[in-house]
Design brief:
5 helices, 5 strands
């Protein structure tokens, strides 16, 4: 488990639960714009997100995509952040239907830890379903907050 808390990177104004998009590229632009609007990135980050998608799909399964930029986009990152967009009607993402797109902006290699933590959350079918149907920003934040690690129980007589 990493030390990254996805919910801590998600400003409430970057959570948008009733989005529509004609296609994948428009959905990515909307994710990027939410990051711009929250002050996490400069507008130049958005084209770098589209460029990433052209080389490698950011669809991870369970109706979820995690668009982020190429290395060239790092210069436009002001601070590590996420955007969370829910598309109730779904968006065609190269043949898959995406209902949740989580935009990532990270300086340095921060995106690796963020991606790893999000994968833990999003690849759990029950949590992914709960995110796809989340109706409030508070619900999204709760679902993206990592569960506290519980210590292994010790057996009697062990330190």
């Amino acid at each position: 488990m990493s030390d990254v808390d996805p919910a801590a990177l998600l400003a409430p104004d970057a959570i948008r639960l009733a989005e529509t998009a004609a296609d994948r590229d428009e959905a990515i632009r909307r994710c990027g714009q939410a990051l711009v609007d929250s002050g996490a990135v400069e507008p130049a980050y958005v084209p770098a997100m589209l460029e990433r998608e052209e080389s490698v799909s950011t669809y991870i399964g369970e109706g979820v995509a995690i668009p982020h930029a190429t290395l060239a986009g790092k210069a436009a990152v002001v601070r590590d952040a996420l955007s969370f967009l829910r598309f109730p009607d779904g968006v065609d993402w190269d043949g898959a239907t995406v209902h949740v797109a989580i935009g990532i902006a990270a300086k340095g290699d921060g995106h690796v830890a963020i991606l790893a933590e999000l994968a833990q959350v999003l690849l759990d079918p029950e949590r992914a379903e709960a995110l796809r149907s989340a109706e409030t920003a508070d619900a999204v934040l709760a679902l993206l907050t990592p569960a506290p690690e519980t210590p292994e129980p010790t057996r009697e007589g062990e330190p």
